[in-house]
Write a structure and sequence with these properties.
By secondary structure, this protein is α+β, with helices and mostly antiparallel strands. The protein folds into four domains: about 15-215, Histidine kinase-like ATPase, C-terminal domain (Heat Shock Protein 90, 2-Layer Sandwich), CATH 3.30.565.10; about 225-380, Ribosomal Protein S5, domain 2, CATH 3.30.230; about 405-425 and about 505-624, no CATH class; about 440-505, Rubrerythrin, domain 2 (Single Sheet). The protein has helices spanning about 15-20, 25-40, 70-75, 85, 105-110, 175-185, 275-280, 310-315, 355-405, 410-425, 500-505, 550-560, 575-595, 600-620, and strands at about 45-50, 55-60, 110-120, 125-135, 150-155, 160-170, 200-205, 215, 225-230, 235-245, 245-255, 260-270, 290-295, 295-300, 330-335, 445-450, 455-460, 490-495, 510, 515, 520-525, 535-540, 540-545, 565-570, 570-575. It has an eight-stranded mixed sheet. Helix 12 (about 550-560) packs antiparallel against helix 13. The N and C termini lie far apart (about 100 Å).
Length: about 625
């Protein structure tokens, strides 16, 4: 004989589901405030009272639509009902409902043992009140036997419309850290990038009065980079990067994303986040790249311990070549239920979006934006590194020039006077004989460009049009240089053409002039010389150090890799590059005198005297 039985559930299911579906008390509290948003509330008042120990209370009051008798019976008292699924948008403000699973009330059981609900429908002259004691939900009772007894009557003066939840006899205590976290999470419930919000949350805590007040988003203000991007359903992609009020816009047609159109904004704080400017809390809840569906937060993306874009893991694996810091990035990614229907929320509210093909298409697209931002930071760091290197070399040259100023040399004075007479000739006609040079400094078939942002200059082959700073930069031999600029597109052909490229080339770092017997002598490092050219040379009024010579590169490498300082004299420890440039200057100065005099003693004494003076000067310079 065929028989049948009915499913039944123990009354404790409400508490058990609350414990299993809701991660923690903070999440349970967050879910209840979401219900106020779904009720078309414009103002929510939250109060924590004596929560430092168990037994305290939390009160949540909103000015939403409230509930009538039918709502209490068919919606509130029915677990996992589909009313929010059938009505995904709210009637008044057309908000996308956040609580579409019908299980938000389980949060009450997670938080406290006793609950009082006071609700007044809009345009009603009555309020409804009912109490729930979750300790009555025992295993010996059936869930469908549990009753809600409610009263109706004259409404409270402070309740024009909406609902009040009084959660008493809290199961857990709330520390200051947890209360701060709750407040910060509420500030991110609605997209903080939107300025036209009509949902305000007021916070109060009797144990910590400093948290009292209107919750405001601390998002914008001190960022160094703002990256905005969007791609529509036709694959039309647009990206705008803003750095120090300079905008770089890029457009491209590409294949539409499987997940549908996406928009986003990412802020990066290269110089660090100032907590006073952004009111940032210790838990860093305002950092991270978050997803908003229809303007509302989808968790857990962007949480402190969430790494959905693998920013932390990429940085740890990169060996120092991934510049994005997870705690210095804040972003909002926008999707919608209508335009991104295949991006489906998981049943577990903490699990985010189901990881299907469309989800990974979204993730890959956002990762590409992060990669672009990382490339920009890489270029900026390289440019900054170049500037620091130039400053370091400049300091070395200036120190050596100060020592050359103390040199006395009739040989050098006579040499320069002979050159000047040769240049003047008779009646101003130059009769100077052709002299040997390190290399012809005339630049054939090349043009000079300049960046108006970082002020760098570089040369490219003629008829080549760079798009960004330092792009297509070549050396004197026309070989592409291994260098990256600041990434700015604010570039143009150089406005000036120096009269003497011997001293004004942008790939040259030069010290100030030294005066020796009243004659000028300049010291410079030339990065456009060939790697096979001389290590150093002296040419008329200049000592030139080859910045591309293997010995120069080795010295740079030693300083960059080891960070050590090396001994060049008694108790004088300096970087390898200082030693190398100083040695080249000393050898060039000594070899010049030997070439003119043919006297070995002249060579030895010139070298040792200049070297000793440099040792003494370097030792006294705090820069080294």
């Amino acid at each position: 004989m065929l028989e049948s039985i009915n499913f039944s559930a123990s009354a404790t299911i409400l508490k058990r589901l609350g414990d299993e579906l809701i991660k923690d008390s903070n999440t349970a509290f967050f879910e209840l405030v979401k219900n106020s948003y779904d009720a078309d509330a414009t103002n929510v008042f939250v109060k924590f009272h004596k929560v430092l120990n168990t037994g305290g209370s939390i009160i949540i009051q909103d000015d939403g639509t409230g509930m009538n008798e039918i709502d209490i019976k068919t919606k509130w008292a029915r677990a996992a009902g589909e009313n929010k699924v059938k009505e995904p948008y709210t009637p008044k403000y057309n908000r996308r409902r956040l609580g579409e699973k019908g299980i938000g009330r389980f949060s009450l059981a997670k938080l406290g043992n006793k609950v009082k609900v006071i609700t007044r429908p809009e345009n009603s002259h009555e309020q409804y009140v009912f109490n729930i004691d979750f300790e009555d939900f025992t295993d010996d009772k059936n869930f469908d036997e549990m009753k809600i007894n409610y009263n109706s009557g004259k409404p409270r003066i402070d309740l024009k419309k909406g609902t009040i939840l009084e959660i008493n006899d809290l199961k857990e205590k709330w520390s200051k850290k947890e209360i701060r976290k709750a407040k910060n999470r509420l500030s991110l419930l609605i997209d903080p990038e939107k300025s036209d919000q009509n949902f305000n949350i007021y916070f109060e805590c009797s144990d910590y009065p400093e948290f009292t007040g209107l919750i405001e988003s601390p998002l914008a203000g001190d960022e160094s980079h703002i990256l905005q991007f969007e791609i529509n359903d036709l694959g039309e992609y647009k990206r705008k990067l803003t750095v120090e009020n300079n905008e770089l816009i890029f457009k491209e047609n590409m294949n539409p994303l499987e997940c549908g159109p996406v928009e986003g904004i990412i802020r990066y704080y290269k110089d660090g986040i100032k907590s006073t400017d952004r009111k940032l809390s210790e838990d860093e809840s305002h950092t991270g790249v978050k997803i908003y569906r229809d303007g509302c937060r989808v968790r857990p993306y962007g949480e402190e311990f969430d790494d959905w874009l693998e920013i932390k893991s990429k940085r740890s694996r990169s060996g120092g070549k991934y510049y994005i810091h997870a705690n210095l990035i804040a972003g909002s990614i926008y999707i919608s239920s209508l335009l991104n229907p295949k991006l489906i929320d998981a049943t577990n509210r903490e699990a985010g979006i189901i990881e299907n093909e469309e989800y990974f298409a979204l993730k890959y697209f956002i990762e590409k934006q992060i990669y672009y931002l990382n490339t920009v930071l890489d270029q900026e760091n390289r440019s900054e590194s170049q500037k620091q290197k130039r400053q370091t070399v400049q300091n070395i040259l200036d120190t050596i020039v100060k020592c050359l100023n103390n040199e006395e040399s009739d040989i050098y004075s006579n040499y320069i006077e002979n050159i000047d007479r040769g240049k003047a000739g008779n009646h101003g006609i130059t009769t100077k004989k052709k002299e040997s040079r390190v290399q012809d400094l005339k630049i054939p078939l090349k043009e000079e460009w300049q960046c108006n942002d970082c002020k760098e200059f570089w040369r490219v082959k003629k008829n080549i049009m760079p798009n960004i700073c330092m792009e297509f930069a070549v050396d004197r031999e026309g070989i592409l240089r291994d260098i990256i600029g600041c990434g700015s597109s604010n570039i143009e052909r150089a406005k000036h053409q120096p009269k003497s490229k011997e001293s004004d080339l942008t790939s040259i770092i030069a010290g100030s002039y030294a005066l020796i017997a009243g004659k000028q002598l300049k010291l410079r490092v030339d990065y456009d010389m060939g790697a096979k050219d001389d290590e150093f040379t002296i040419n008329e009024r200049e000592i030139i150090v080859n910045g591309n010579h293997i010995t120069y590169k080795v010295a740079e490498h030693l300083d960059r890799v080891s960070g050590k300082k090396y001994e060049i004299g008694d108790d004088v420890f300096v970087p390898a590059l200082t030693i190398h440039i100083s040695k080249c200057a000393c050898l060039a100065w000594a070899e010049f005198h030997y070439k003119e005099s043919g006297d070995w003693f002249e060579y030895k004494s010139r070298y040792e005297n200049l070297q000793n003076n440099i040792f003494i000067k370097v030792k006294s310079e705090i820069n080294f």
